[in-house]
Amino acid sequence: MTDEEIIRSLFDRNEDGLNELIRKYGKTAEKIAFSVLKDRRDAEETVSDAYMALWNNIPPDRPASLCAYLYKTVRNLALKRLEAAMADKRKINSLASPIDELAEAVPSDFDVMDRISEQELGSYINAFLSDVKVPDRRIFVCRFFAGMEIGEIADRYGIGKSSVKMSLHRTKNKLREYLQDKGYYDEK
Questions:
Q1: 45 and 127 housed in the same domain
Q2: How far apart are the C-alpha atoms of 138 and 132, rounded to whole Å?
Q3: For 87-98, what is each residue's pLDDT tens digit?
């Protein structure tokens, strides 16, 4: 099933679409949740919650990229679960480094809530990524949505770490330019 067929199936409230989504993207979704939570049971529960959220949100949502929509949902739910766990200050957010790294593409005085909503920002990033070459897009998503380490990405795609770093550097620069063109990044 293609992603569009899965989305159509979800719109029709057909559980086959959900089953195909799980088959197609489930392992990566679990890896994303585990990379944040570092606990297999919490990761599994988070992914289950994400599937339920997708079932409840599609329709009315019609995501442009089904896997990005799922991965973002998983990551956000995992971060919320981690935040709750961090109330006792015992766990460390393993995504802090990639998120700080991505922040280089957005100016420090950029306040998303003042300029655009999170959903709109997601739409801009999705639109940006739709024009990025597939290998660079995959590397970007692995790093900033899945929280994968540089070495993990290099191993996954059979390329060198320096190639991964260069791809990320170029894509972040293109994102910065894209945001500048959209008027959401003011050069000082």
A1: no
A2: 9
A3: 544 434 444 556
**Amino acid letter for position 116:** I
Closest CA to 104 of 162, 179, 159: 179
Contacts with 4 (C-beta within 8 Å, 6 or more apart), sequence order: none
* pTM to 2 decimal places: 0.54
Residues 6+ apart with CB under 8 A from 82: 36, 37, 91, 93
Ramachandran angles phi, psi of 133, nearest 5°: -55, 145
Are 4 and 81 members of one domain?
Answer: yes
pLDDT of residue 104: 60
CA pair distance 89, 1, nearest whole angstrom = 43
Report how many domains make up the chain: 2
- Boundary of a domain, candidates 93, 125, 150: 93
Q: Tell me if 146 sits within 8 A of 28, measured CB to CB.
A: yes
- pLDDT tens readout for residues 100-148: 566 566 554 444 444 445 556 667 777 888 888 989 988 988 887 777 8
Q: Which amino acid is residue 74, in one-letter code?
A: V
In a 13 Å sphere around the CA of 180, the CA atoms on its Cβ side amount to: 11
57 and 102 in a common domain: no
